[in-house]
Every structure is written in structure tokens, then in C-alpha cells.
Amino acid sequence: MKGFNSAVLGLGLAVWCGLAGATEVPAGYRVAQQLPIDNGQVLEILEDVRMTPDLHRALWGNGTEPESIDDQVLAADVENKPFVDAQVRLLAASGEALENKSLGYPLATVEKAPLVGLPAPAYFLTIDETAPMGTYSGPATQVLMPSTGKLNATVYRTAEGKSEVLFLAQTGKAAWQVGAPTADGVAQIQQVSSSPASEDEEFVTTYRTYRFKNGAWQLSSRQETGYWDTESDFPQRSAFP
Fold first, then answer.
1. Which element (helix H / strand E) includes 17?
2. Where exactly are the structural domains of the chain?
3. Contact in structure between 98 and 149 (CB atoms under 8 Å)
4. Which residues of the chain have pLDDT under 70?
5. Quick check: helix, strand or coil at residue 46?
6. Cα 48 from chain centre
7. Of residues 108, 70, 105, the one with CA closest to residue 89
8. How far apart (Å, rounded) are the C-alpha atoms in residues 225 and 223?
9. Model pLDDT, residue 147
10. Dihedral sign, CA of 185, 139, 145, 152?
11. Which among 30, 29, 28, 34 is positioned nearest to 12, based on CA atoms?
12. d(CA 105, CA 125)
């Protein structure tokens, strides 16, 4: 989702007083963000110690290669020693680290998900997977529902009954938004993406709706011939199944 990165980064500047000194930060990392959740637990994002809030904002969506860094001294340092991958940690009320995961890329953010009708609060964990070139990479968001000390990634059921991890892409040819709940209070997320059907063929646009029904996320999707990118308005609700 667009628009939340600057806001959530501000949270990373303030260390939650209840955890001060309680949890050791790994060498080479800094605490980029802390988000208190239920039962006194905290979701925490760790980033490279060189990744200041201003640098995070500057690099978000632009790639973290040395060529993207204006400070030539820092760029040379990153060329010699690339940024470490960001981590997400779940901390207990005591400050104990219950679980942590490496995210595979240097930049990440977390925020409360504005989703209704769920059995427990959910959170959007967004990892910036932007590549130096191309329009098919960008921030990827997954839905976390932390419980029993675990960083549980949300899965959804396909029409064929398979379970897949729910990832939401924001690229040059993909976007998503939280849709209005259904009349009976069912949470919805809408995703649009466009890609060639195959090499040298026409573009196909896919419209996906994820709904939380009967205790699980379920996917409905449809495709049509045609091109869409983020220079266009987000499709109308009627375009989604």
C-alpha cells in the first residue's frame, strides 16, 4: 500500500520504554521500528546499522545498490560490504525474542492492517523487493497474524483447495488495496496485476479478491485481455470477482 512508509518510519525513532535494554540487537543492526501489539508483545523491524531513517526513505522503491546512494563514501562502503537483510522479530512483554525471521532484503516496514471481521488483529509486513531495473518488482506485503509466540504468515485457499502464502505486490504493473467489507462484515483485499500471457503475446490483466470467510482467506480471480499499470487509476470495484 502506498502512503504509510513515512508514517511508520517515525515509530522507529522512538524506543518503547517497556523494552529498554531488555533485548539485545544483533551486531550490525539497528532497531528501525517497534510496533506494540496485543498482550504487551511487540513487532520489531531490524535494519542495517548504516540504514538511517532518511536513507530508508530515499532508497524505498529505488533499490539499495550503491548506485542509488548519493553519499559517495557510504556508497563505496556498501559496495565493499552490502547491507544486511532486514529482520522481523516478535518480542514478549518481558522483552524476550520469541521468534525472528530474516526477510531477504534490506528494507522493511510493519503496520496495523485495517481489516475487520478477523479472529485476531492482523499486520501488514512489507518488504521492499525493488530491483534496479524493470517494472515487475517492488514492495511485497504479507499479512501477519502473530499468535502463541509465532510470526504466522497468512495463507489463502485457491479455487482448487490448495494453500498458498498471501503476498500482495506493488510494482509498475501490480497494485492492491483493502476493499470495503461485504454486507455481512467479511474482510476483503483487492489485487490487480498485468503481464504478457506468454512471450510476444498480448497482455492479460488479472483481478483477484481475497476474502476472509469461514475462518480462512479464500481467493476469487478472473482474467481479461488488456493492459494495466500504475499510471492508471485503480480499477473499480465492479472489475473484481
1. none
2. 1-111, 170-241
3. yes
4. 1-22, 199-200
5. strand
6. 18
7. 108
8. 7
9. 76
10. positive
11. 34
12. 13
Phi/psi of residue 87, each to 5°?
-130, 150
Give a three-class secondary structure readout of 26-59: CCCEEEEEEEECHHHCEEEEEEECCCCHHHHHHH
In three-state secondary structure terms, 1 is coil
Computed from CA positions of residues 10, 14, 18, 20, in that sequence, does the dihedral angle turn out positive or negative? positive
| Cα–Cα distance, 141 to 114 (Å, whole number) | 14
Residue whose C-alpha cell is 522493511: 108
With H, G, I as helix, E, B as strand and everything else as coil, classify residue 84. Answer: coil
In this structure, is the dihedral angle defined by the CA atoms of residues 165, 87, 3 and 183, taken in order, positive or negative? positive
Cα gap 161→81, rounded to integer Å: 44
> In whole angstroms, what is the distance from residue 154 CA to residue 168 CA?
11
Rounded to whole angstroms, the Cα distance separating 32 from 149 reads 21
**Whole-structure pTM over 0.85, yes or no?**
yes
